[in-house]
Amino acid sequence: MSNVPFISWLGHGAASLAPSGVFTDAKANAFVIDADTKAMQRTVDTLLNPAGAGKVRYQVALPVAMLSFMDIAQCTSSTDILGWLPGRECAIWIPLLEFRDGHLLPSRLVFWSPYIFISYTIGMVTGREAWGWPKVLAEIGVASDTPTNPQFSCTTTFFPTMAATTKGQHGVLYRIVQQQAATQQPPVWQSAGEARAGLIGGIFGSLAGDLLDALQPQLPSVVLKQFRAAGAPQSACFQAIVDSPIEMTRFIGGGLLWDTFSLEITNCESHAIVYDLLGTKPAPGTTTTLPVKFATWVTVDFQALSGDDIVVTT
Q1: For residue 189, which phi and psi values (nearest 5 degrees)?
Q2: Of 4, 24, 161, 237, which one has the greatest count of Cβ atoms within 10 A?
């Protein structure tokens, strides 16, 4: 850890605030899809494992991916007292097993996000600078926006093809669409323990019992944090794999969704989501539609904790 003090811009237009992040009344939805283990491992080996420097490596845990959408009433810092903002985030998650050098068995289960989007600047800059999350600005739609036609959407800038002549487009990159409403209401979860069991059970099935203890009380996630060197832009002046844990502080409500949903992805070269998750390269300008196998909702308060550097390669 560096002994050089951080020069705070608080009071001078600061857009990066100190952890921990405090989030109140966060309404979250999670949607699980089938994915290809080899394709996701290739993505991990390209975007995360090279920074492990042989000290830590990550292996895809199961052939599934999860999409999350959050609508948060208040977002703020517990350290830099500036004020609060509402905010929305959506992300695509891959569950990974973490292996430390010299150990044959994995040390823990973690979650990693190759795609993550956010609706407000302070959250984007703080997420990138404090932990390394590859956050990008987007307009994020949730079911309450269109209650008669529930859907969740991520609208951002993308490029159909990557070429000097390609003009960027601003449109829906992916969305979750309700295909059929449930004929009856599923039971709601009465506690944080039931919520953890229901969510992890839906993702991991029979492995859920072995994973519950490992995910209490924090949800472990890892991030690649890096900054370009000014004089050598193909090099990193700082690169690390960072532990970025999330801790639930208050459970408000949650439960399963028995509606039928599908995921629609706009195929483009700037966001190779289908290739990263499934290993196929659909034509730009087309749409890939995938069934959602499991869906849930939860409302909580939580904190994004400071975390720590797992390995620093610079």
Answers
A1: -80, 140
A2: 24
